[in-house]
Design a protein that fits this description.
This protein is α+β, with helices and mostly antiparallel strands and about 170 residues long. The chain has four helices and eight strands; from the N terminus they run ββββββββαααα.
Length: about 170
């Protein structure tokens, strides 16, 4: 069983207290809330689904594709700044890979904010391989999305992300 995790996103006016800012995408368990000290926004993520964390440190950017850590498997447990809970990191991106992942997240979340993060891990491993191999063109990614959907019969008609993106 994968564990849920909390992400604390620093608020813009509190940048001086931390050395980074960040964005987090994924399937949230509940609506975001401000922490008691009013320095960050708390997001609760479903550990059974993928989340993408984009960090902006001074001078560089880094992205992580993560999911909750599974205590019953042999996955390596990891932790990241601003995250409360154990994570399994599928992919780390900097530089060109960071920009490519960020662009693909914008494309894939255009029509369904959380739909793509409910895709199985195999989709995300393949997507990350496309990014690493410099083959992450929009057509290749949409083809991968269609293949994954057909293989797993993952979405019903009411949640058909592929149909919405193809329009």
């Amino acid at each position: 069983m994968r564990h849920d995790f909390l992400v604390f996103v620093p608020l813009e006016d509190q940048k001086s207290s931390v050395s980074y800012s960040m964005y987090a995408y994924g399937v949230k368990n509940e609506a975001p809330r401000q922490t008691d000290d009013e320095k960050s926004l708390c997001l609760s993520f479903d550990g059974n689904h993928i989340a993408v964390l984009l960090y902006y440190f001074s001078g560089f950017e880094r992205a992580y594709v993560v999911t909750g850590w599974d205590s019953e498997s042999s996955e390596e447990k990891s932790s990241l700044p601003g995250v409360d809970g154990d994570l399994y990191i599928l992919f780390t991106a900097i530089g060109r890979e960071y920009k490519s992942l960020k662009r693909l997240i914008a494309i894939l979340t255009k029509y369904s904010e959380e739909g793509v993060f409910k895709m199985p891990q195999s989709f995300w491993f393949r997507l990350c391989a496309l990014i690493q191999g410099r083959k992450a063109r929009k057509s290749n990614v949409l083809h991968l999305l269609h293949l994954t959907k057909e293989e797993n019969e993952f979405y019903g008609r009411e949640n058909d992300l592929c149909t919405e993106i193809s329009k």
